[in-house]
Design brief:
CATH superfamily of the largest domain: Aldolase class I
Order of helices and strands: EHEHEHEHHEHEHHEEEEEEEEHH
Helix content: 40-55%
Distance between the termini: 58 Å
CATH architecture of the largest domain: Alpha-Beta Barrel
Strand content: 15-25%
Largest sheet: 6 strands, parallel
CATH topology of the largest domain: TIM Barrel
Number of strands: 14
Mean pLDDT: 76
CATH class of the largest domain: Alpha Beta
Low-confidence stretches: 269-306
Length: 373
C-alpha cells in the first residue's frame, strides 16, 4: 500500500516569507507542535546557512520525539557535514541535499557540465549516507530541466542511496498541467527503478539462502564416502526443484570420444554415448536430428534435440582442462519437454549457480582426496 508522508518545511522555507522569520525559541515551539501533529518529516533549517540556523536545528533535535528532523544542504561537503552534525541528537534523522538540474542553472550558476552535476550529486548522496541512513535528493529548478537528464540523475542518486526524490518547480515556471505530467512520468520511471531494485534484492536474498544450502551440502560431502551418492543427492535436488524424472550424468572422455554414466535415474542409459562429439554440439546434428542451443533449466544447453521417441536436454559442466561432464535430462513426450523448458525459464540465477557449484564441489573434493576414480 502506498504511504503519503508529510514533509513540512515551515521552519526552513516558510520562514523566508516576508515577516515570517522566527527566533530560535519560536522555531522550537513550532517544531513541538508539528511533532504533536505527527508530521513525518520536519525540515528544521539549513545548518550551513548561519550559526543561528545550526543552533536552532540542534535544539529542535533535542525536543522532537516522533518526527524525523531534517537539515537542508547543498551538494557541498561542508554543507553536508554541518547538516549531519546539527541533527546528531535527533531520534530520527534525515539530510536533504540538492543541486540545480536545469540547463540555465548548470551553465550560468554552477558553471558545470551535466556529467559534472551528476557526479557531484552522487558524491553528495554518498557522503550524506556516512552521517544518516535517510537521504533526500532534490533536483533544483526541475520545472525547467530536461526530462532525459532528470531521469539520468535520479537513477544515479537512487543507486547511490537516496531514499526520497524531490521534484520542485523552484522558480514557478511550469503550468499546473505541465508540472502534473512531469511528475506522472517521473513517478512511473522511479517505480520501474524500485521494482528492478526489489527484484535484485530478492535475488540476493535468495542467493544467500542457496549459499547456506551449499555450505550444508559441502559439509555433508566431506563426510561422505561414495561419489555416486553425492551425485544422486545433487540430482535429487533437481528433481525436487524442477520435477525432473529421468536423467543421466555422464563423464566425457575426449581422447577416446566416449562417455561413462556416473549416475542415472534408471539402470539403462538413455542414448549412445558416441552421439556427443564435444561439449559444444551434439553429434545428433550429423545424424540429421534437429538440434538447437538455448537457455534451459541449468543455463545454456549445449544441445536440445529430439530423438525417435524422446526429447533430450543436455547441459555441459566444465572443471579443469580435459574434464567435462554432461547432465542429460530425458522427457517422455513433448508436453513434459515444454513443461520443463518453461519451468527452467523461471529458474533463478541463484538456483542455477548453486547446482553448478554443488557438482564442482563434489568433483573437486573427491579428486583432491583421491576418492574420485
Amino acid at each position: 500500500m502506498d504511504t503519503i508522508k508529510i514533509f513540512d518545511t515551515t521552519l526552513r522555507d516558510g520562514e523566508q516569507s516576508p515577516g515570517c522569520s522566527m527566533t530560535i525559541d519560536e522555531k522550537i515551539k513550532v517544531a513541538i507542535q508539528l511533532d504533536k501533529l505527527n508530521v513525518d518529516i520536519i525540515e528544521a533549517g539549513f545548518a550551513a546557512a548561519s550559526p543561528g540556523d545550526f543552533e536552532a536545528i540542534d535544539k529542535i533535535s533535542e525536543v522532537v520525539k516522533n518526527s524525523y528532523v531534517c537539515s537542508l544542504a547543498r551538494a557541498v561537503d561542508n554543507d553536508i557535514k554541518k547538516a549531519g552534525e546539527s541533527i546528531q541528537k535527533a531520534k530520527y534523522q534525515r539530510i536533504h541535499t540538492f543541486i540545480a538540474t536545469s540547463p540555465i542553472h548548470m551553465e550560468h550558476k554552477l558553471k558545470m557540465s551535466p556529467n559534472e552535476v551528476i557526479k557531484r550529486a552522487v558524491e553528495a548522496v554518498k557522503y550524506a549516507k556516512t552521517f544518516v541512513d535517510d537521504v533526500e535528493f532534490s533536483c533544483e529548478d526541475a520545472g525547467r530541466s530536461e526530462m532525459g537528464f532528470l531521469k539520468e540523475i535520479i537513477s544515479a542518486v537512487i543507486e547511490a542511496g537516496a531514499k526520497t526524490i524531490n521534484i520542485p518547480d523552484t522558480v514557478g515556471y511550469t503550468m499546473p498541467w505541465e508540472f502534473g505530467n512531469q511528475i506522472k512520468e517521473l513517478v512511473e520511471f522511479v517505480n520501474r527503478i524500485i521494482r528492478k531494485m526489489k527484484e535484485q534484492v530478492r535475488q540476493v536474498e535468495e542467493l544467500l539462502e542457496e549459499e547456506e544450502e551449499l555450505l550444508k551440502f559441502k559439509r555433508t560431502v566431506e563426510e561422505d564416502e561414495e561419489l555416486e551418492t553425492i551425485y544422486k543427492r545433487i540430482i535429487n535436488l533437481l528433481i525436487i526443484k524442477f520435477g525432473i524424472k529421468n536423467f543421466a550424468f555422464y563423464e566425457v572422455f575426449e581422447k577416446s570420444n566416449t562417455m561413462s554414466v556416473l549416475v542415472a535415474s534408471q539402470k539403462e542409459t538413455f542414448c549412445d554415448p558416441a552421439i556427443f562429439n564435444d561439449a559444444e554440439l551434439c553429434r545428433a546434428k550429423r545424424r540429421g536430428l534437429p538440434v538447437k542451443s538455448e537457455e534451459g533449466i541449468l543455463g545454456k544447453a549445449c544441445s536440445m534435440y529430439r530423438g525417435q521417441t524422446n526429447y533430450y536436454m543436455c547441459y555441459p559442466f566444465f572443471f579443469t582442462e580435459g574434464e567435462k561432464f554432461i547432465l542429460q535430462i530425458v522427457c517422455d513426450n513433448q508436453e513434459e519437454y515444454e513443461r520443463l523448458k518453461e519451468k527452467g525459464k523461471h529458474s533463478t540465477v541463484a538456483q542455477i549457480a548453486v547446482m553448478r557449484k554443488m557438482i564442482i564441489i563434489a568433483h573437486s573434493l573427491y579428486k583432491n582426496n583421491k576418492k574420485y576414480k
